[in-house]
Amino acid sequence: MRDRIKISVLVFACLGIISWFIGQGLTVDNYQFFLKLRFPKVLAIVLAAIAISASSLVFQTITNNRILTPSILGFDSLYLLIQVLIVVGFGTTSVLVIDAIPNFLLSTTVMIGFSLLLFHFYFKRGSSNIFTLLLIGVVCGSLFTSMAGFLTMLVDPNEFAVIERAMFASFNNINAALVYWCTIPLVLCFAYLFLSSRKLDVLWLGQDNATSLGINTKRLTKQMMVVITIMVAIATALVGPVLFFGLITVSLTREIFDRFQHNFLIIASSLLAVFFLVSGQWFVEKVLTFQTTISVIINLVGGSYFLLLLLRNKIN
Amino acid sequence: MFSKQLYSKQHILAASIFIVLALSSLLLGAANVTLAGLFSGDEHAYDIYLISRIPRLLAIVLAGAGLSIAGLVLQQIMQNRFASPSTTGTIDCALLGYVVSLIVLQQASQWSYLAVIFTFAVFGTLLFVRILQQIQFKSVVMVPLIGIMYGNVVSALTTFLAYKNDLVQTMSSWSIANFASVLQGNYEILYLAIPACLLAYYYASQFSAASIGQSFAKNIGLDYQKIVFIGVVLIAISTASVVMIVGVIPFLGLIVPNIVSLFMGDNMKRILPWTAYWGVILVLACDILGRLIIFPYEMPISMIISIFGGIVFIYLVLKDKANA
């Protein structure tokens, strides 16, 4: 019962912060202008928050671990490498740099394609140890980082300014049409995760228990990895690298709510994520007056939280 | 060293591989100089060798040996085969130290930079090692995964500092390992790898004892935490000097000790010199390859090692699972 109260508080907090974020300073004369700017921004924040938290939650379930996030598969470094390659290959005046939609399509296609290829080869070998897969992802990530670093050395500082913009997550120059189109795949993925929540409940008991209870763990893992990949790729291409965000929200959700049912946890962590991200963006805009980007705050808070988790040995 | 003959076949073969690679490294380069020119007293050739080519070879040898041994020591004290300076946050902490030293010490000497980098590397690694000593893991690959996450946390902070001070692009160009910039007068800090390696050899049996476990080490009368601390200091010396002078060479400390122990077993006193040797050979070969691919330009060695090391690492992980 207490969880029900907590979640209601969370719903009201989310609605409150969103309506305040959209509504502040609106008058009869200016509302059209402001709403046109603010609505896509808030929608982007909400979509990214939900995509990241839901996928991180499911990722922790399939890895049976409370400290990993899907970003460890190297999405952030791949995204960065794609941006660097675009600038190096086509120059800063290319349509891929200026127009957000082709850039988005290219980035998501490459990221999803890469991960599916990785999964395909990995699962074809007949192995089911997810950690090995993660480690391979990490290795590829470090390869991408050094390739991006090498290419960064070659570009001149003006071109680098374009790359640097892609290095940090930001909601300040969101393309409205892009946000609306992203809603469809993200909602579908979210619904799929939500519908699989009963199977995930069983999987959380551990691989052996799940198998003896009649879950095809390997197939479930594979399906979930594909869905997670799509969600993370879209979120990354939409807002930029957000490494630790999923970690904070999912861990806090598990601490606040004393439950293990995934259908509940997915909703709760999404709400918490929306609340954090919207208030974080408000904090960046109003308190810090755009002195820094939201990804810096996410990394600082998320990084310290990660260290805290390590120190308290809450890993397994 | 370990066989009764002073020079076994193995040693001669090893020495000749090294000599061939070292000579090709010396002879290779954009400037057209030959050994013959050097001996006939060509002033220009003499300068090129003394200022650029020989320092480069020495830097490769020192960095290769230093980082491989650092990886070996780290694997012993962490009791994990997949520990290495790049999977326990040591390199990321060293980079953080570098950025901090650049911001705080504007015009200081190289040694004070090194001191800052070294301090960050020691404390960062020690923190991680201490934390992991408390935790029992279900899977060996958890240690590198957590270590890489830890490294990501540290490098997020580094990027933030660099971003504030407009150093992001500069930072990504130093962190790319490249021996091309090694010249006489700017690589000498790398000589610190020699005492670090000798000390690692001296403490080899203690590290081996520590690798069996804390209680075992205590039972045979070792000060376990002291050994761990010495190990971390040695690792940090090698890593800090390499990061400062050359840049980040990924996977080196990971793959070389693993490959050597695959063929030669786990006797640390015996495999330590060979680890250093193969580290040198690997770095030397990758450096030569990087100089040949787009001759007369150069690919940075970190690219070559990432590709090669990544493949070997994945092979080792997959193989490890097959054994289990």
Task: Tell how many strands the DSSP assignment of chain A holds.
Answer: 0
* Helical content class of chain A: over 70%
What portion of residues of chain B is helical? Answer: over 70%
Broad structural category of chain A: mainly alpha
Based on CA atoms alone, the radius of gyration of chain A comes out at 20 Å
Q: How many helical elements of chain B?
A: 14
The arrangement of helices and strands of chain A along the chain is HHHHHHHHHHHHHH
Highest CATH level, the class of chain B: Mainly Alpha
Low-confidence segments of chain A: none
Average predicted local confidence, pLDDT of chain A: 83
Q: Strand fraction band of chain B?
A: under 5%
Which descriptor suits the 3D outline of chain B?
Answer: globular
Question: Could you tell me the mean pLDDT of chain B?
Answer: 85
- State the separation between the terminal residues of chain B, measured CA to CA: 34 Å
Task: Tell me the layout of helices and strands.
The complex is a heterodimer of chains A (316) and B (324).
Chain A: H1 2-23, H2 31-63, H3 75-90, H4 95-98, H5 100-124, H6 130-154, H7 157-167, H8 176-195, H9 197-203, H10 207-212, H11 217-239, H12 245-256, H13 262-287, H14 294-311
Chain B: H1 9-27, H2 35-39, H3 43-78, H4 90-104, H5 110-133, H6 142-164, H7 168-175, H8 193-202, H9 204-212, H10 214-219, H11 224-245, H12 252-264, H13 268-293, H14 301-323
Helix pairs in contact in B: 1-3, 1-13, 3-8, 3-9, 3-11, 3-12, 3-13, 4-5, 4-6, 4-11, 5-11, 8-11, 12-13, 12-14, 13-14
Question: How does this model look, in words?
Answer:
The complex is a heterodimer of chains A (316) and B (324). With 316 residues, chain A is an all-alpha fold. Chain A has a single domain, classed as ABC transporter involved in vitamin B12 uptake, BtuC. In chain A, 78% of the residues lie in helices and 0% in strands. Chain A contains 14 helices and no strands. Chain A is globular. Chain B is mostly helical and 324 residues long. Chain B has a single domain, classed as ABC transporter involved in vitamin B12 uptake, BtuC (Orthogonal Bundle). In chain B, 74% of the residues lie in helices and 0% in strands. The longest helix of chain B has 36 residues. In chain B, 50% of the residues are buried. The model of chain B has no long low-confidence stretch (mean pLDDT 85).
